[in-house]
Specification:
- The chain is an alpha+beta fold and about 375 residues long.
- Helices cover about 70% and strands about 10% of the residues.
- The protein has twelve helices and five strands.
- A five-stranded mixed beta sheet has the order 1-2-3-5-4, with helices on one face.
Length: about 375
Amino acid sequence: MGKTVRQAARATVHLALAAAMAFCLWIFITVLLITAIATVVVVGAWMLPETVLIIRRIAGAKRSMTAAWTGQRIPEAYQPLTGTLRERIRTAVRDPGTLTDLRWMVADYFYGALLALALPLWPLGLAVDGVWSGLLRRTPLVLPLIVRLADLEADWSTALLKPSPKAQLAARVEELAATRADAIAAHGAELRRIERDLHDGAQANLVALSMRIGLAKRAYDRDPETARKLLDEAQAQAEQALTELRNVVRGIHPPILTDRGLVGAVRALAASSGLQVTVEVDRLEDDGLRAPAAVEAAAYFVVAEALTNAAKYSGSPRAAVQLVRMKRGLRVRVADEGHGGADEKSGSGLLGMRRRVAALDGTVEMSSPVGGPTVIDVMLPCVW
């Protein structure tokens, strides 16, 4: 009985908030009328995009309220109101999200008053369920109806506030355009890095190698000792050039991924990171299936970058890596117990990590409050 009362009380609070918002929407009709009149007479046309922005905030608050009750986030898809006044007005009028929000507002004027049905159920429920459930130990009958009213209100709000397929498609196109731009930027930065590494490392060593071999050839007949010394130096230079080339190749696609797979490569990273790293693997080694090479490479570089940052900046001697095979993707989670405060703008490589993941349509979530801990959670979509 106590649990039923608490659930009904929580549902009543939700319905009360919904009723308060519906009452505010009735007052907001005045703003809508003023905006409509001002737009018709042209003089106050600037009010239209501003009013649409207010409606978006109100709808966003309703989405948050509904998500708090249902536990499921309601997505939103709006076109940005930018540019000249004419462009902003045109976007505000043509945006499918505007029609979605107005449709919800009209409906909420009526179903937002479900609190009026819930309040009379309280005295009836306390009397009936007090005897039926409290004394006879039966399932409550009346108070659960209040919870169902709250569920009904949330279901209607979810259905009305969910973006239309057209709006979702437009938002998806914008997201993919931004992802494509980030992928191109990341690809260009990677090419410049490879070119710089080759120019400053392997190429310089090969030039020096060529010069030493030439000097050794000229000195071979008249001074064999000097020629032998130059050849020893050339051999050392060749080995250094090979090391530089291996580093460049490792930066493109680490060979250890091909040889040992993602799990083995991550464990090798953990062993060489200088930290006490625990690696937890879930369902990645069950049947021998592997993620696509691009996904494994992205996951590897996420772990490598995160552990490097942890070793440099966190101040913590410990870190934890988690690799989880999901139904439709791969989840990578790296956490440390440091002092937190990680910032993407500080040059710590987090922006490059985000771009690499976004190129595969993945997501990166980072939590790093001052005082720690720092947690990086990456989801990479793939088909197993």
